[in-house]
Amino acid sequence: MSAVVINGLAVTYKRPGRGLRQETFKAVDDVSFTIEPGRTLGLAGESGSGKSSVARALMRVVEPSGGSVLIGGQEVTKLRGGDLRKFRRHMQMVFQDPYDSLNPRLTAGDNIAEALTAAGVSRPDHTSRTRELLDRVGLPAAFARRYPHQISGGQRQRVSIARALAVGPQVLVCDEAVSALDVSVRAQILNLLKDLQDADGLAYLFISHDMSTLRFMADDIAIMRGGRIVEHGPSADVFARPEHPYTRELIAAIPEPGAGRRRRRTAEEVR
Amino acid sequence: MTAPLEIPQGDPALPGFGLRAWRSLRKDWPALLSIVLLVLLALAAILAPLLAPHPPLATYPDGLQANGAPVGPGGDFPLGADPNGRDVLSRLLYGARVSLVIGILANGLATVMGVLVGLVAGYLGGWTETVLMRITDVIMSFPILLFCIALIAVTGPSAKNVVFVIALIYWTALARIVRSLVLSLKEREFVVAARTLGLSHWRIMRKHLFPHLVPTIIVYATLGVASSILIEASLSFLGVGVPVPDPSWGQMIEQGKDYFQIAPWLLFAPGVCLILTVLAFNLAGDWLRDLLDPTAPERR
């Protein structure tokens, strides 16, 4: 069974202001895709293309205005109240801003323990489970007692990942999860995510505006623009034979190591 | 999976609360002074029967001069006498009980109500928010003193009713402030994360929203103690506060103002106490706010 099946998803936001004629804005329009367990769908596109809205609708953080979302065969858009709360452990999210996604008033360990509480792990087991989870994301147990402002961005993102794993999800949504990190740390986190996927068979929805990150991470690629998917296919095909002009633009924008130096030299030769 | 990591240097965990409180107090002398003052004040109020040289309600013929004016400070009356021949120091000590208890209780009640209403309205939104905030608007649109007088006219003047009436008026401001804080707070990623984990509404409010409101609540609560004491004074002046012979600071000021040219101590004694108390509450509140914030840099 597919981990995620999204069909005809639509998200509509209300424009600010109240009145008889409520203006609306369609952020996501008729988006469909599937993700198999252990696979990664990379979602790319410019700012405002609706990538994050897809993620938030899948997570039921915003209400989709149409379409269906199946997680492990369960229709998520129809779930309400307590049922939705219990189901949330099957889908988890790693957020963009490692400086904002952990509660600054709780230690790293307590942030993870909140997830354990949500998963119904009994209190006496919290310490040992937290240690296990920190170990899985490559952090020493001593980090449990540190506050988020006392650790670095990459370490915070590891804690975020540990928190998401704590409830045992099938689907992990990474919304620009490495965009705020510098390049060397980014590579470490990407490798960690790949290792965890191999171990647990997690399905990833990996959102990024950075095509080189997606080339590394994704099995399939979907390109969004103006709330719609304009190109969708296996990663190798999309990079080798981009069909949509917008996809070609995105791929052309990937910086190539040494390209700038070469170009400058040719410019000098011309002179 | 073994990524290179710097090993944590030393133990970054914060020392215990008591120890931290003591360390920061030693560096912050205005806060230390305020807390000493508040402790002394509380002791004075509790031990009033032991400390007071006279019963607060007794009238003394030798408290008045031959022309009927009250005698000044000194001798039998350390802070002078009032126009009824009662000892000002004794009334001040007993008045501290009334003023402090009314100020703290009324304001405590108002704070609890305001935080609950603001938190629930801001977090849940929708109809709950509309109903709660319109009730808040309605209460805020009443003229405060007139509303108090009307309520007390119905319920009858007593210290207990004064507490309830002040609380009923004062929760509204905090409810609005808390709601607006929650509105921006609930969009923060860690609150969204708490929701996606499937935590209950109550737990999200308690563990992920409330701690971030504490600094603001402390500041408003300490300011509120001061205004509650002052409202009580106004009500006493209008004859709907603490029933008359029992002393409260506000009542003493209001009674003393007619005599301030011949007996300024009637204003100064309770006035200075009121100012010092209000100041001490505010400074202690600032200190407590900094202490409770783990991200605040430790002042060296």
Automatic annotation (TrEMBL), chain A:
GO MF annotations in UniProt: ATP binding
InterPro entries assigned to the protein according to its UniProt record, in alphabetical order: AAA+_ATPase (IPR003593), ABC_transp_ATP-bind (IPR050319), ABC_transporter-like_ATP-bd (IPR003439), ABC_transporter-like_CS (IPR017871), Oligopep_ABC_C (IPR013563), P-loop_NTPase (IPR027417)
One Pfam entry name: oligo_HPY
Keyword terms: ATP-binding, Nucleotide-binding, Transport
PROSITE patterns the UniProt entry points to: ABC_TRANSPORTER_1 (PS00211), ABC_TRANSPORTER_2 (PS50893)
SUPFAM superfamilies: P-loop containing nucleoside triphosphate hydrolases (SSF52540)
Domain ABC transporter: 6-251
UniProt KW Nucleotide-binding keyword: yes
Family: Belongs to the ABC transporter superfamily.
Name of the protein: ATP-binding cassette domain-containing protein
Organism: Paractinoplanes pyxinae
UniProtKB/TrEMBL annotation, chain B:
InterPro entries membership: BP-dependent_transpt_permease (IPR050366), MetI-like (IPR000515), MetI-like_sf (IPR035906), OppC_N (IPR025966)
Family: Belongs to the binding-protein-dependent transport system permease family.
Protein name as catalogued: ABC transporter permease
Keyword Transmembrane helix: yes
Residue span(s) of domain ABC transmembrane type-1: 96-285
Location within or outside the cell: Cell membrane
Parts of the chain that traverse the membrane: 29-52, 100-126, 138-156, 162-178, 213-242, 262-284
PANTHER family recorded: D,D-DIPEPTIDE TRANSPORT SYSTEM PERMEASE PROTEIN DDPC-RELATED, OLIGOPEPTIDE TRANSPORT SYSTEM PERMEASE PROTEIN APPC
Native source species: Paractinoplanes pyxinae
Keywords per UniProt: Cell membrane, Membrane, Transmembrane, Transmembrane helix, Transport
Chief site of localization: membrane
Keyword hit for Transmembrane: yes
Taxon lineage: Bacteria, Bacillati, Actinomycetota, Actinomycetes, Micromonosporales
Domain of life: Bacteria
Annotated membrane topology: Multi-pass membrane protein
